[in-house]
């Protein structure tokens, strides 16, 4: 009996440690509205992959070499970023460490990313990366102006009802509670834009913005 109990304890301990390990290894990101992804990024481009290789990115503190995936890309358009053309994007080698898998078959992607100190572009699973043709008309259009107009607004994700906003400069993102998906109506068709009185509200992307932004349009 004692042996069984002990062995059970050991097994549980191992299982527990294994779980902890797994959690520590997993990449997790808070879901963000595409406008937030745009505003939080240094670089937003439309591009396709034309090559892929595993490259060295120096050593860690133990002297082990760090690998990264380098995607050679063809940049089709830049929506945000420094005035130059990127011909490569870097990411971590596996999804466990937030690396992104892009397909090299002509698929064009919308890609948000960070600019590193050395001027290279780096992407993670927490970025907004989607095949261009899977993005909505509003998302495509908002990249050129609308999202930028709302970067001073705060988009607050509603996870459970009731949700509270703390200032008039916030838009409540309710896709999850209403549609049980983060790729819902507000993500696909709306941008959160600052109005003339400094408050923020959702605007449907297809319509031309009103001059004073005081009419809220319904979906
Ligand atoms: C590229 O590959 C992806 C994943 O395998 C597939 O879903 C997509 O349809 C392919 N696209 C083209 C243009 O072949």
UniProtKB/TrEMBL annotation:
GO terms for molecular function: metal ion binding; metalloendopeptidase inhibitor activity; protease binding. Zn(2+) binds at residue 27. CDD domains: NTR_TIMP. Pfam families: TIMP (PF00965). It is found in: Secreted. One of its GO terms (cellular component) is extracellular matrix. Keywords: Disulfide bond, Metal-binding, Metalloenzyme inhibitor, Metalloprotease inhibitor, Protease inhibitor, Secreted, Signal, Zinc. Residues 27-151 form the NTR domain. Residues 1-26 form the signal peptide. Belongs to the protease inhibitor I35 (TIMP) family. This is Metalloproteinase inhibitor 2. It comes from Perca flavescens.
């Amino acid at each position: 009996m004692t042996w069984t109990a002990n062995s059970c304890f050991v097994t549980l301990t191992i299982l527990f440690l294994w779980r902890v390990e797994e959690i520590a290894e997993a990449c997790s990101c808070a879901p963000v509205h595409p406008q937030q992804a745009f505003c939080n990024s240094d670089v937003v481009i439309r591009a396709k992959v034309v090559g892929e290789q595993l490259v060295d990115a120096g050593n860690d503190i133990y002297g082990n070499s760090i690998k990264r995936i380098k995607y050679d890309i063809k940049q089709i358009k830049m929506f945000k970023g420094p005035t130059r053309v990127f011909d490569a994007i870097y990411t971590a080698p596996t999804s466990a460490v937030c690396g992104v898998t892009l397909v090299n078959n002509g698929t064009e992607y919308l890609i948000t990313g960070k600019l590193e100190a050395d001027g290279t572009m780096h992407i993670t699973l927490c970025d907004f990366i989607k095949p261009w043709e899977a993005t909505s008309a509003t998302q495509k259009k908002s990249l050129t102006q609308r999202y930028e107009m709302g970067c001073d607004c705060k988009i607050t994700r509603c996870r459970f009802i009731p949700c509270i906003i703390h200032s008039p400069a916030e838009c409540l993102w309710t896709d999850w509670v209403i549609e049980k998906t983060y790729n819902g109506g507000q993500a696909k068709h709306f941008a959160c834009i600052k109005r003339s009185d400094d408050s923020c509200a959702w605007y449907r992307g297809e319509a031309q913005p009103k001059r004073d932004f005081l009419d809220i349009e319904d979906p």
